[in-house]
Design goal:
6-stranded mixed barrel, Ribosomal Protein L25, Chain P, 6-stranded mixed sheet, alpha+beta
C-alpha cells in the first residue's frame, strides 16, 4: 500500500529541488542509435513471432490507456505514449490467433531495428517464480519473515512534479517534519519494522527469502494453504549483489558464480549469512495476489520466455527487443522479447533479464544464466522526431 503524505508547499519545493537538481535531462536523437536491417538479425526468419506478438498485445492494452503526451521514453531518446498508438491499435486488430508469418510481417511493416551506436552487446541473465516452503506462524525453524509494505513507507513519484523524471521515485519515512531514507536491510533484519509491517509468511532458509526478493514474485507453500506473492514496494536503497562481494573477497571464483554456488557457500558457512546479506541495503516488500500470474512493471502477467526486464533509463516498457545469445545449455537463443519488467540489478543500455516462469527448468535457467548477447530495439516507424 502506497502512503500519501500532505505537507506544506515549502517542504515539497525543497524536496523536489534536492531530488531533481537544477538541471534538466537532455534528450538526444537517433544519432545515439544505428539503424539495422532485419536481415542482420540472427535467425530472424526462424523465430516464433506469433508468441512475441501475443506478448506485445498485452503491453498494448496498457499503452493505449495512457495520455497521448505522457512521456514513456528514456533519458537518451524521447518517446511519448502516442508514438505507440498506431502500432498498438494494429496489433490488437490482428487478434491473438495468428500464424508466425503474419506476426513476422506485422513487426517488419511497423517497426525498424536499431542498436545502440556505442554498444551492441551486453549481459543477459534470467529470473523465475520460485516455490518456497513456509509457515504462517514463526517457529524455531521458520524464523525469516516475508514482509508486506510497512505502514510508514512514503513513496514520492517525481513524475507528479516534473514530466522529465518518468519512473523516478524517492522512498523514505517521515521523522518529525523531515523525509528521511527508509530502513536498510541491516536495520530491518534486526526487527526495526516488526511492528510496522505485516508478516505474510515465515521461511526456513534466508536464501529462499533473498531469492524471492531477487525474483520479485513467487509462491509460499504452507501446510495450510498456498500463498501467491507479487512485488509490492521496496525500501529505496540501491541493490547490491551479494555475489559481487563474495567474488571481491575471494570466496567464490567469478567464473563459478551462480545462485547455486552462492547457496552452497552459505550452506557451508551459515555464520557469514548476516554479514554478507546486510552488505545489500535494498529490501523488497510483497503483496498477496489471488491467481498464479506474475506481473511485471506494466502490471500485466508476464509471459515465460518472452517477457524481459530492462533498465528503463534506456528502454521504454512495452518495446520489442530482439535478443541473440547462447543459453547455459549451449543452445542458441534468438527471440523477439517484449520489455515488460524492471529490476534493481538491471543496469545499462544493453542489459536484459529473461523471465523463465516457474518450475525446475525455470529455476535452472535463471540460476545459471549469465551470458553475453546482442540486443536490437524495434522502434515504431511512426515515432515522432
Amino acid at each position: 500500500m502506497k502512503i500519501t503524505y500532505s505537507s506544506p508547499k515549502a517542504f515539497l519545493a525543497i524536496l523536489i529541488l534536492l531530488a531533481l537538481g537544477c538541471h534538466q535531462p537532455q534528450h538526444k536523437n537517433h544519432s545515439i542509435l544505428t539503424k539495422r536491417a532485419y536481415t542482420q538479425l540472427p535467425n530472424w526468419d526462424q523465430s516464433h513471432h506469433e508468441k512475441s506478438l501475443q506478448t506485445f498485445q498485452k503491453s498494448c492494452q496498457v499503452m493505449l490507456k495512457k495520455h497521448p503526451e505522457k512521456s514513456i521514453g528514456f533519458a537518451k531518446f524521447h518517446m511519448q505514449a502516442k508514438d505507440w498508438f498506431l502500432v498498438c491499435r494494429q496489433a490488437l486488430k490482428l487478434g491473438s490467433h495468428l500464424g508466425n508469418q503474419q506476426a513476422k510481417d506485422f513487426f517488419e511493416h511497423y517497426f525498424t531495428p536499431y542498436q545502440w551506436t556505442e554498444k551492441s552487446q551486453g549481459l543477459l541473465t534470467g529470473y523465475y517464480s520460485p516455490e518456497i516452503k513456509g509457515q504462517l506462524k514463526q517457529s524455531a525453524s521458520y524464523r525469516y519473515p516475508i514482509y508486506a509494505t510497512p505502514d510508514d513507507l512514503v513513496i514520492v513519484k517525481l513524475a507528479d512534479f516534473s514530466p522529465n523524471y518518468v519512473q523516478k521515485f524517492i522512498y523514505g519515512k517521515i521523522l518529525g517534519k523531515h523525509l528521511i531514507p527508509y530502513d536498510t536491510r541491516a536495520q530491518i533484519s534486526k526487527g526495526s519494522i516488526k511492528n510496522r509491517a505485516p508478516v505474510l509468511a515465515w521461511v526456513k532458509n534466508p536464501m529462499d527469502a533473498l531469492d524471492l526478493e531477487i525474483q520479485g514474485a513467487g509462491v509460499i507453500l504452507t501446510p495450510a494453504k498456498k500463498i501467491i506473492l507479487n512485488y509490492a514496494a521496496q525500501n529505496g536503497h540501491p541493490y547490491q549483489a551479494i555475489g559481487k562481494f563474495l567474488i571481491e573477497e575471494h570466496k567464490i571464483n567469478r567464473a563459478d558464480m551462480s545462485m547455486y554456488t552462492i547457496r552452497e557457500y552459505f550452506h557451508q558457512h551459515p555464520n557469514e549469512i548476516d554479514y554478507y546479506f546486510n552488505k545489500n541495503p535494498s529490501y523488497v516488500f510483497f503483496k498477496i495476489v489471488e491467481k498464479p500470474l506474475f506481473f511485471g512493471a506494466q502490471n500485466i502477467p508476464l509471459t515465460s520466455g518472452y517477457s524481459l526486464a530492462i533498465d528503463q533509463r534506456f528502454v521504454p516498457l512495452g518495446m520489442p527487443i530482439f535478443l541473440s545469445t547462447e543459453l547455459p545449455t549451449h543452445r542458441m537463443f534468438n527471440r523477439l522479447m517484449i520489455a515488460q519488467d524492471i529490476g534493481g540489478a538491471i543496469k545499462g543500455p544493453v542489459r536484459g533479464d529473461i523471465y523463465w516462469g516457474g518450475g525446475a527448468y525455470a529455476k535452472k535457467m535463471a540460476s545459471l544464466m549469465k551470458q553475453q548477447g546482442n540486443y536490437w530495439m524495434l522502434i515504431p516507424n511512426n515515432k515522432s522526431s
